[in-house]
Amino acid sequence: MSTLTTEGGPVVPGRPSALTPRSPRVGEKVVYAILRSASLLTIVITAGILVALAIPAAEFFAQVPVTDFLFGTRWAPQFADASFGVLPLVSATLWTTVIALVVAVPFGLGAAVFLSEYAHPTLRAVLKPILEVLAGIPTVVYGYFALTFVQTTVFREWLQLPTEAFSVLAAGLVMGVMIVPTIASISEDAMSAVPQNMRQGSAALGANRMQTTVRVVFPAALSGIIAAVVLGISRAVGETMIVAIAAGQQARIVENPLELGQTMTGFIANAALGDARVGSLEYDTLYAVGLLLFALTLIINFISIAIVRRFREAY
Amino acid sequence: MPKNTPTEHRLSDDNAGVKIAAAQRPTASAIVDPVLECDNVDVFYGNFRAVTDVSMDFGINEITALIGPSGCGKSTLLRSLNRMNDLVDGARVTGRISFQGEDIYGPDVDAIEVRRRIGMVFQKPNPFPKSIYDNIAYGPRVTGMKPSSMDDLVEEALTKAALWDEVKDKLKQSAFGLSGGQQQRLCIARTIAVKPDIILMDEPCSALDPIATMRIEDLMVELKKDYTIVIVTHNMQQAARVADRTAFFTAHADDTTGNRTGVLVEYDTTTKIFEDPSDQRTEDYISGRFG
Amino acid sequence: MSVFAPISRQIGEGTIRGRARGGDTSPASILFLGLLWLSLLLAFAFLVTLIVTTVIEGSPRLNAMLLTEFPASRPEEAGARPAILGSMMVIGFTALMTLPLGIAAGVHLEEFSDRNNWWNRIVELNVQNLAAVPSIVYGLLTLGALSAIGVKDKNIVIAGATALSLLILPVIIIVTREALRGVPIEIRQGSLALGATPLQTLFRQTLPSAIPGIATGSILALSRALGEAAPLLILGALVFVSFDPNGLLSGYTTMPIQIFNWTGRPQDEFHILAAAASILLLVLLLAMNAIAIVIRNRYQKRW
Predict the structure, then answer these.
(1) Are C134 and A133 inside 8 Å of each other by CB?
(2) pLDDT digits (tens, 9 = 90+) for B170-182
(3) C-beta atoms of C189 and B87 within 8 A
(4) What is the pTM assigned to this prediction?
(5) Which chain C residue's Cα is nearest to B81?
(6) Which of A20, A202, B269, C58 can pair with C275 through a Cys bridge, CB separation 3.0 to 4.6 Å?
(7) Is B199 helix (H, G, I), strand (E, B) or coil?
(8) Residue B45 main-chain phi, psi, to 5 deg
(9) How far is A48 from chain C (nearest CA, A)?
(10) Which residues in chain C come in under a pLDDT of 70?
(11) Which residues have a Cβ under 8 Å from the Cβ of C110 and sit 6 or more positions away?
(12) Dmax over Cα atoms in chain C, in whole Å?
């Protein structure tokens, strides 16, 4: 018999089973435990966020009624006659987000459609990295550009627009460009995932490329595209540096895009620069706004997941 | 982690509406030395019964072929024989599958060891992204074999798989550089290297050209001197060429759920199956009336 | 109008050659394509403008002084040295903290957790949510946690590294899972069929094949952390730093923070410094991204 036949031997009653493990494998149990705890850590983090935000926020709401906070229109937490109505912050956030989307969605989808449906492979290989570079630029640098070039040079010097040193328009525009790669790459993934035979079926019916793209590919990729847009919204709402630098530091209800304002994130950034004592009302205000921000992004994210589930095409 | 299924003895009368022809055990040439036995084996995926009430023995140093149309549970049954089905969520086996008399789903049994003793070659060759040498040496290394000379073991495995002459000068090269037929023989060599008793083959030639197929079939006949082989094949001529015994499966629509479940129709020596089948369904399949 | 209508019109008008009405050269199609090109070009133009203006503004101060000098109240004397060193230190510690945890969690979620278990589905959902949380919230989290354990001065390297680690941990997890998913299941099956344990299969087959993908994604995540300022601002990293960072508990600043600082000053000379530091930061990030892409192209397995 060759050496490559079994060495286990036939099972004999009374002899230890031949099918038991050859080694106890203790080390493996340890490794499994480590892996398991690593993934549980993520839950701990979320719990941590909730706790870290909730405790100071609770102290805040013990002193400031929730309705005053959510529906008040004057935000002046550090003044003698303090007021804690968060609507000014929300209005600035809303303006910057909407402006950002107005820029990011058409350009992002346009880039995605071009890359996915029209671009020659070599062109695609050149353009995709450029998009990735756009995505990698630090938001500080975007913020600097928004303040010095867009707001100061373009709006005030070249276009002579009636605007001050900061504006939500400049911040929103630049933020929009920052989000373009996010929307573009996720949408492009979604569109590329649409099977080729769908396009071929459409072409075989005599549709041209635009019709195929708009009527076949787009609807099929809709869930991914919506996910991309919603992720863009989430990023816009949560973005800090661009708005802290270029949108302004004054909390006021914003009524037209050329005005300045302070977003929720801008407030948190600016307030943290100050020297609020831990445990003081000023400190707690920070967390109240933080909690609102976290809640908003959570809601946006859940909406995204729900929409994706509803519209997902199974191939 | 895979769980062990407690063994149960099931009687076939609670199969509402599924009529099964009794699986024929060979009479004239009975199996005297069964190395693997199935008794009333059902395989479920969740609530879906993929295979119904299979009872058959596999003889030592024989080639047994499982044939039949697609979707009748042959591969499912094969994967249950070495507990590869444990990897599928919701898969479970009732009945008893014993290897050398011992229930492979028993509570003390280690599925890892089962898989070493009962090896498997897959439909599409799946070499690892490593050198040819490391592909063969992988199994011995992970199962803790400490051969006096790994080089000799690798050479012997490749020789028995009829691949040594073609690769002996390029053992350090990537296995991906081999042709499809060579890769499949590499997978066979890899399986042999861990010293199994049984080699299961799930349509091993269906991704290969006819010449490569022929070489693997010749290899199988050689290998059965040292190993027991069970092969699932869609190609009944292949079964006729290499198998000592053949089991014919078909898919039966379960009257209650309408799902198709696999049943063993007839199991006998290959000669009997192909020349004088007892069941009309076997006759129909063999003569190409359906399939 | 249904998708069939244009066809009947096409055939009826004999335009099978694809001109005029329905073909790819129809006015609507051309306009559509034109708009697509326009959107790409505008994005491209924006990028070029940003880079060009920054370079033009910053080049006067793009010299060795930037690298060697400390920040000063007089712009002529100022440099970004502590910021550069601080960035390196913080990113280094971030990588040390987040990569093992993220890869381990990713491995567990992708290879060993039972997907049908409700608890595991919650963990997965949670990771997705964490990836979408604004970066500043991670700063608040770290701030709160440190206050809770009584740390007074939070402007220390370990605090910044913790905040950034938490920020990119979900990304590392997602990246690891995607890389593992890219390894074909046949490789795992082949290994298990030989009698290898699931862990042996993981460490000897699956993970090695997934490493290029994990490396690429991790470098990209770390480069994102390099450019982050918001969480560190919350932790008080804007202090005037005139020394080299020298340990986990040392005060520090980073390049994005320094840029933010200089941008906020009224004097134009500081704006020039900000632009110069931005160029430096961009070059550094470009280098990191390039490394990541090289890894992806050279080592990524084609199955």
Answers:
(1) no
(2) 999 999 999 999 9
(3) yes
(4) 0.84
(5) C193
(6) C58
(7) strand
(8) -110, 100
(9) 7
(10) 1-23, 238-239
(11) C176, C177, C180, C181
(12) 82
